[in-house]
Amino acid sequence: MARLTLPCDEATIRALKVGDFVELSGRMITGRDSAHHWLVKEFRQEVAPYMQGSVIYHVGPVVKKHEDGRYSFVAAGPTTSAREEPYQADVIGRYGLRGVIGKGGMGPKTLAGLKEHGAVYFHAIGGAAQVLAEAVTRVETVFQLAEFGVPEALWVIEVKDFPVVVTMDSHGNSLHAEVDAASKARLDALLGLAG
Amino acid sequence: MTATDQWTERFVEVIARASTQLAPDVVEALRRGREAEEDGSLARKALDTILANIELARGKWQPICQDTGTPLVWIHHPVGMSTRMLTQAFEEAVRQATARQLLRPNAVDPLLDKNTGNGAAPGIPTVHCEEWDDPAVEVRMMLKGGGCENVGAQYSLPNPTLKADRNLEGVKRCILDAIYKAQGKGCAPGIIGACFGGDRGSGFLESKRQLLRRLDDRNPIPELDAMEQEILAKANQLGIGPMGFGGKTTVLGVKIGYLGRLPASYFVSVSYMCWANRRAGARFSPDGGVQWLD
Q: Which residue of A has its CA nearest to B59?
């Protein structure tokens, strides 16, 4: 299993291929539906330094607020990434992201964006909220908490050995496109729809 | 303590179980799936992580998945019990479970475009009460996540693209197509609840109610049992696999029900449940005893 420290450079990301297991350590930011909309509406200077060279994690965590004001992640598996398809390539380009973590994969626009900007799609295991919350060692800060609520806020987190699989790389390969095509062929054969 | 408070306390316990303790039949099906996948494959790796996650959640009594979903509950109660009281008690239980991080604040008001912060909003949770002759109260609930809810589908027969006519063969074709279209996005390996007949609303509700069934039960109606077994076998030939990584384990179970339909309508409603099939059930006797139901 490869280890990767965030933030990282383009060459490191270009070396990754579909099917690689990677453990991520370092700082990343979370963001999902409201966050992506907010990030493309205008350039958000305040969060940009946390995104440059790092990754955005599609997650809506369960978060505990401690008495001293600290936050910690109680459950934090990935959410479906496909909803960010209209925005993701722009967000990657404008904020200098090196990757995205989510589940279910993304479409052709994002795949082209990954290739153009030198970024990858990391697939985390959907529903594995406890395994992944354990890899989140610290919550550094949070943006848009009052406006978006806990699941949709942008949380800046520190992770250690966060397990993911590369399912879309920076060379135009997508495991999701491959599995979709192969399963469509099997479905057509089962239903006698081929040809 | 008022009767409402008492029921709230009991319902919080049922919610805690649903959110943190995955039912044994689901764990067993996931283990069998893991054995079927090839050593070193992405599919097996995904199932290893899933199984480790289930045990972590069980030990810590923390949510298996951060998307704690829509709480859907069916309550059977004795004659004369107030359904309004039971509904209010369950709604309050959702708010309390949310405050204790057993549930995520998971309800958004779409008019204000704002998370309500307490887990409740119009229609969330969804409580169905039904009177019966038994003196006990039986509660069966599920937490249905948004990712899997989003890949549910409804078909209107006939469907020429699928060569699906208005018959059981046509119903099977729709269900298989829905499984293909879901790919890994509903957190495969999933469980399929389906209903044919009904209207657009009742069909989906029945498809969800089917998801309360244990994975290892058999449909008492022979035609439906045969359909369930056939679709399960064929779905697992699609090669979608856990998380859509490719593999043999695409679906863990298929459960089918039906409702009457109008001559003009023939709907097939398909609900997809993620592997984190968070069901819980309990039977509360009048003497205060609790029996947990799988």
A: A130
Mean pLDDT for B204-216 is 98
Range B191-196 average pLDDT: 98
Residues of B with Cβ-Cβ distance to A59 under 8 angstroms: 66
Backbone φ and ψ of B83, nearest 5°: -70, -30
- How high does pLDDT run on average in chain B? 97
| pLDDT, tens digit, 9 for 90 and up, residues A102-141 | 999 999 999 999 999 999 999 999 999 999 999 999 999 9
What does pTM read for this prediction?
A: 0.95
CATH of the domain at A93: 3.20.130.10
Q: Where are the domains of chain B?
A: 3-21+64-145+278-293, 147-273
> Is B264's pLDDT higher than 80?
yes
CATH class label, B3-21+64-145+278-293: alpha beta
For chain A, what is the domain count? 1
Residue B8: name the closest of B102, B105, B122, B89 by CA.
B89
Contacts of A28 (CB under 8 A, 6+ apart): A6, A54, A55, A56, A57, A101, A156, A157, A159
Q: If you measure CA to CA, which chain A residue comes closest to B149? A: A80
* Sole residue written with tokens 């890994």: B184
Whole-number Å distance between alpha carbons of A89 and A124: 19
| Residue-number span of the structural domain to which A18 is assigned | 2-191
